């Protein structure tokens, strides 16, 4: 055994040395040659290419030919075309990297054999001979077109423009020859460079955009020009530039091309008209969370940015866990975020077709009925199924028995014959479940799995870009395999990194545990990061969309701090939330010299920075209420608010108040102040202005903090006792007897306000006549301790 291993090692070393000699023989440095050897696939292709070229040209290959061979091996996506391309290089019919690039592009765009040789040669410039006279004429024509600008700007003119235009006229001309001719003719026209020509051209000053102009871009939609914030669509569009165009699925790395692929793509284009189609496919067994918001933005946003459409498709293949409330809530949240699906579909819409395809898969020998238990086939290394090679007719009969309910749950499954990217073998396509379906009733007692359903539903709906998070990458091979095994249109699956937040949990199972233990009220508890919870807390949908766009669409998983989402909320709410005044801990104040016999009306701007957006009226009478924390009996250094001997201004009222008398209860607690007031223009300017209310409405205010104490409550190394042991006891504080000015009286659930000096608040659905309830969305400024 040891001797055999040693011999094998010696043989491998000998082959490596031989390859090293081949690679350095075509002009690679020894370092580059050794680096190439470390890439097994590349070194195998390059070795084939070099040996083929040497058989035609002899052992001595010049460096230019070697460079072409290396680039062909390194850049070719489909190795079956290597010999074809090397033949053209060896025959000196492909001589430049420009021609090689065109050849590589051609074979990538024509994946099926045989290639049309005449068309290939036309596309690659084979046999095209560009004469010096043609180059001279082309350059002369370009310079003639720009003669006036050249004479005006002389050598400060962009000579690259001349080069580019000349090359566009003579695609296969040698670049160096064109440059030499441009230099010669420019010198003839302008003469030698002068001292002025050698001075640097002054840079033109760039016009500075106002902040609003930087953030917005004109977008044409439905024939109308509107203003769209750049962060919503531009970032999504930018990431998606590398995506294939509809109908060009075969250009995607890893896409499997079959003899029927091109015909199927042609049919697909005839049906879609080349339109981008995406889908958002949630399971209706829970409420959407912040991670889903990214998926919604990416799927709907990519379609919108490219003039396409997006389906909302419910993956309703597990009737045991699905409830109508989830279907309703999912659609509400999609529309709340500002998106309208082109159609709402269900996997169950296609159950009949999926079943027909399952029968076809069995007939083609690609699926079989298996009786291994669920426990036996779990994990990545289960024992092979003893039923994998059972006769097709037997599997057809048994699958029919499954459909008729002759097997109990767990007694039989239909499995597909493939090995997935993560090594999992023969994934399940159908299983038995005696659970009525919310849409199909008792028609079925077998239900398809995600691995079977997802790609086929994408195929039926002619999805162009099947966008999903990175954990589904292991299913990409089964996705392509199944569509091709059935000879149906195969979309492209693209994976991106999921979005997670710190200080929270988003898994359905864990949220259910939080609800069951009473840690939160329900899925929409404002301390959670489900979308219904964020809406209830008062987060505007625009803030969530902006947050998702700022995170970006990356392959790597993004784990973000909640304060970044809160910052997005502040930006939007500052523009959207009208101002009001509220007092959380009221202290009664009596104005003893009130300037009028009855209550006055004060005009308060809805948005102080832009009074054109209107005003609201609030009453001002002898009794007002201020925050307890805005008064101190004794002044500390730096304290600027109300105290004996230190007056304060009342916001918007136009008056300054000064303490005359302090009234306390039996325990010594301050319960009332008696003050005098003076018009602001007659009084010395106070150090501070405070908010207040008069004739207020009683309300309840709920103040929220993080639900968990640690950043990663699910991490055993950070929280050994489990996430339920990490709950923040101060995550909710309820102020039962807060007061708010009467301008909010007509507000409805989810209406939003900025309570001056306190934060942004939203009307909670628990509000009822006579007692409004407000949730604090975010404070006015970020708490430095949370950053």
Automatic annotation (TrEMBL):
Annotated localization: Cytoplasm, Cytosol
Alphabetized Pfam families for the sequence: tRNA-synt_1c, tRNA-synt_1c_C, tRNA-synt_1c_C2, tRNA_synt_1c_R1, tRNA_synt_1c_R2
Catalytic activity annotation: tRNA(Gln) + L-glutamine + ATP = L-glutaminyl-tRNA(Gln) + AMP + diphosphate
CC terms in the record's Gene Ontology section: aminoacyl-tRNA synthetase multienzyme complex; cytosol
GO molecular function per UniProt: ATP binding; glutamine-tRNA ligase activity
Database matches in PROSITE patterns: AA_TRNA_LIGASE_I (PS00178)
Domain Glutamyl/glutaminyl-tRNA synthetase class Ib anti-codon binding positions: 577-677
Enzyme class (EC, first level): ligase
Record domain tRNA synthetases class I (E and Q) anti-codon binding: where: 689-764
Domain Glutamyl/glutaminyl-tRNA synthetase class Ib catalytic: 275-574
Keywords, sorted A to Z: Acetylation, Aminoacyl-tRNA synthetase, ATP-binding, Cytoplasm, Ligase, Nucleotide-binding, Phosphoprotein, Protein biosynthesis
EC number of this enzyme: 6.1.1.18
GO biological process: translation
Occurrences of domain Glutaminyl-tRNA synthetase class Ib non-specific RNA-binding (ranges): 17-175, 178-266
InterPro entries: aa-tRNA-synth_I_CS, Gln-tRNA-synth, Gln-tRNA-synth_Ib_RNA-bd_2, Gln-tRNA-synth_Ib_RNA-bd_N, Gln-tRNA-synth_Ib_RNA-bd_N_1, Gln-tRNA-synth_Ib_RNA-bd_N_2, Gln/Glu-tRNA_Ligase, Glu/Gln-tRNA-synth
Family, as annotated: Belongs to the class-I aminoacyl-tRNA synthetase family.
Known role: Glutamine--tRNA ligase. Plays a critical role in brain development.
Subunit structure: Monomer. Part of a multisubunit complex that groups tRNA ligases for Arg (RARS1), Asp (DARS1), Gln (QARS1), Ile (IARS1), Leu (LARS1), Lys (KARS1), Met (MARS1) the bifunctional ligase for Glu and Pro (EPRS1) and the auxiliary subunits AIMP1/p43, AIMP2/p38 and EEF1E1/p18. Interacts with RARS1. Part of a complex composed of RARS1, QARS1 and AIMP1.
Name of the protein: Glutamine--tRNA ligase
Species of origin: Grus japonensis
């Amino acid at each position: 055994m040891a001797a055999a291993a040693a011999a094998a090692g010696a043989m491998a070393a000998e082959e490596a040395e031989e390859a090293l000699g081949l690679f350095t023989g075509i002009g690679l440095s020894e370092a580059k040659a050794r680096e190439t050897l470390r890439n097994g696939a590349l070194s195998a292709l390059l070795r084939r290419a070099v040996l083929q070229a040497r058989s035609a040209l002899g052992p001595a290959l010049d460096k230019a030919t070697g460079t072409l061979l290396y680039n062909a091996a390194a850049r070719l996506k489909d190795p079956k075309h290597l010999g074809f391309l090397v033949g053209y290089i060896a025959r000196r019919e492909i001589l430049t990297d420009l021609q090689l690039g065109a050849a590589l592009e051609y074979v990538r765009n024509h994946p099926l054999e045989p290639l049309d040789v005449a068309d290939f040669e036309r596309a690659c410039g084979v046999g095209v001979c560009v004469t010096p006279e043609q180059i001279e004429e082309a350059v002369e024509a370009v310079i003639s077109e720009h003669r006036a600008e050249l004479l005006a700007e002389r050598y400060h003119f962009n000579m690259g423009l001349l080069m580019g235009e000349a090359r566009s006229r003579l695609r296969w001309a040698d670049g160096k020859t064109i440059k030499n001719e441009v230099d010669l003719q420019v010198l003839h026209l302008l003469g030698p460079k002068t001292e002025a020509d050698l001075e640097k051209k002054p840079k033109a000053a760039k016009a500075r955009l106002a902040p609003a102009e930087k953030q917005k871009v004109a977008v044409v939609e439905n024939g109308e020009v509107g203003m769209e914030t750049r962060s919503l669509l531009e970032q999504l569009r930018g990431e998606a530039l590398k995506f294939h165009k509809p109908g060009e699925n075969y250009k995607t790395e890893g896409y499997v091309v079959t003899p029927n692929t091109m015909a199927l793509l042609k049919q697909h284009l005839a049906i879609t008209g080349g339109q981008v189609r995406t889908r958002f496919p949630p399971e209706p067994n829970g409420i959407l969370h912040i991670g889903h918001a990214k998926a919604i933005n990416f799927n709907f946003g990519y379609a919108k940015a490219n003039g396409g459409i997006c389906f909302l498709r419910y993956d309703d293949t597990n009737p045991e866990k699905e409830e109508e409330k989830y279907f309703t809530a999912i659609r509400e949240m999609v529309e709340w975020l500002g998106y309208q699906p082109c159609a709402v579909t269900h996997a169950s819409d296609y159950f009949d077709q999926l079943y027909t395809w399952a029968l076809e898969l069995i007939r083609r020998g690609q699926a079989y009925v298996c009786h291994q238990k669920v426990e036996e086939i779990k994990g990545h290394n289960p024992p092979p199924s003893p039923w994998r090679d059972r006769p097709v007719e037997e599997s057809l009969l048994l699958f029919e028995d499954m459909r008729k309910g002759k097997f109990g749950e767990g007694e039989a499954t239909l499995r597909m014959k493939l090995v997935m990217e993560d090594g999992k073998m023969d994934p399940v396509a159908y299983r038995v479940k005696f659970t009525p379906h919310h849409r199909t009733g008792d028609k079925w007692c077998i239900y398809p799995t995600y691995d079977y359903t997802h790609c086929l539903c994408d195929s039926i709906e002619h999805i162009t870009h099947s966008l999903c998070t990175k954990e589904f990458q292991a299913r990409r091979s089964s996705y392509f395999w199944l569509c091709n095994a059935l000879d149906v249109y195969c979309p492209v699956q693209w994976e991106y990194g999921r979005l997670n937040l710190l200080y929270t949990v988003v898994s359905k199972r864990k949220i259910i545990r939080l609800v069951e233990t009473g840690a939160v009220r329900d899925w929409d508890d404002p301390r959670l990061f489900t979308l219904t919870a964020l809406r209830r807390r008062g987060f505007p949908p625009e803030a969530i969309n902006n947050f998702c766009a700022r995170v970006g669409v990356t392959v790597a998983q993004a784990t973000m701090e909640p304060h970044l989402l809160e910052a997005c909320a502040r930006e939007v709410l500052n523009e959207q939330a009208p101002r009001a005044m509220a007092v959380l801990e009221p202290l009664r104040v009596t104005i003893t010299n009130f300037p009028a016999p009855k209550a006055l009306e004060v005009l308060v701007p809805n948005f102080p920075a832009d009074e054109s957006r209107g005003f609201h009226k609030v009453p001002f009478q002898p009794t007002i209420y201020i925050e307890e924390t805005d008064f101190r009996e004794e002044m500390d250094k730096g304290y600027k608010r109300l105290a004996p001997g230190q007056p304060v201004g009342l916001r918007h009222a136009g008056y300054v108040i000064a303490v005359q008398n302090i009234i306390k209860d039996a325990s010594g607690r301050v319960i009332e102040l008696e003050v005098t007031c003076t018009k602001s223009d007659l009084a010395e300017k106070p150090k501070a202005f405070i908010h207040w209310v008069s004739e207020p409405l009683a309300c309840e205010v709920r103040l929220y903090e993080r639900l968990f104490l640690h950043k990663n409550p699910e991490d055993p190394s950070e929280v050994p006792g489990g996430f339920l042991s990490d709950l923040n006891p101060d995550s909710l504080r309820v102020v039962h007897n807060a007061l708010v000015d009467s301008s909010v009286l007509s507000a409805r659930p989810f209406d939003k306000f900025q309570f001056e000096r306190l934060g942004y608040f939203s009307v909670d659905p628990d509000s009822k006549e006579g007692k409004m309830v407000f949730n604090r969305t975010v404070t006015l400024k970020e708490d430095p301790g949370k950053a």
